[in-house]
Amino acid sequence: MGAPREEPPRGGSPIDRGVVLITGASSGIGRALAREVAARARALVLVARRQDRLEALRAELVAARPALTVLVYGCDVADRAAVDAMLRAAAVEVGEIDVLVNNAGSGDLGVYDLSAWPRAEQMIALNVTALAYLTHRLVGPMVSRGRGAIANVSSGFGLTFGPGMAAYIGTKHFVTSFTEALRLDLAGTGVRVTQVCPGPVQTEFNEVAGNFTGLEPPALLSISPERCARALVRAIDRGRALVVPGVVAWLVVHLGVLCPRWLLRLAYRPIARALRRKQLAVRGAPAP
Ligand SMILES: NC(=O)c1ccc[n+]([C@@H]2O[C@H](COP(=O)([O-])OP(=O)(O)OC[C@H]3O[C@@H](n4cnc5c(N)ncnc54)[C@H](OP(=O)(O)O)[C@@H]3O)[C@@H](O)[C@H]2O)c1
To answer: Which residue, judged by its Cα, is nearest atom 41 of ligand 1?
Structure first.
């Protein structure tokens, strides 16, 4: 948005010949990220709950580049003991992590009062606590070495708001503000901190979020997971603070940021009402 460019980071990208840990690598943006960095990294540590998918990805990546070490861990990143065990095992196999990509995340579509608390709680544990914990575990050694990167996958909703995803939007505001503030904290340490704030990306996200509307995001606004992954990798390479990939998504997100909040509230109110009616109809409950 016309902001002055910061000084580019010194030294080469920590991705090159580095150890890159990617959470949520079994699908969507995380899988595309693994494919994107596979030609440059020394080792990949791929984490998600569906280990079979990670194994298939490992086979694909190693077939393309036999010199690459790929470790896969079927691990719920919201489970601290499992994360600790995974980090211990990875340290033995490949040593220190150079780049942490906090990508694993989930959504929960619907008005908040009709949402199920266990789903909301799991989402907050994953999108917020797991991301903050993994960062805390890995950032100290990066600072000591004077090299590394933390790259977080936030959302356009980390910068603005909308109806029908209150808790998700809250979690992404955490990710965006946390990442910006962490970047300040780590200024001058040699550790890069960056984030991607995408609009809609064509992944399993909407399905997992329980999209009951029967509607998909407009094709013009949506980008592929590969494009999103490329944007994040470029941002790490160049030491950028925040990127919104896709021209149309960039415009829409920035319009949301610049638009007066009272106007957004007014514009979104009928959409929120329609969502509530649809959600109640799907549930078979009478509309208010
Ligand atoms: N798609 C979009 O429109 C969009 C837009 C903006 C931001 N984002 C963000 O992009 C990130 C990636 O989402 P995506 O679009 O690629 O969706 P996706 O295709 O559903 O991928 C989500 C990934 O997170 C993993 N995951 C979920 N819960 C986990 C847990 N408890 N522990 C470990 N891994 C877990 C999933 O693997 P398992 O199920 O195998 O564990 C999967 O690999 C999320 O942070 C999301 O908020 C997405």
So the answer is: 49
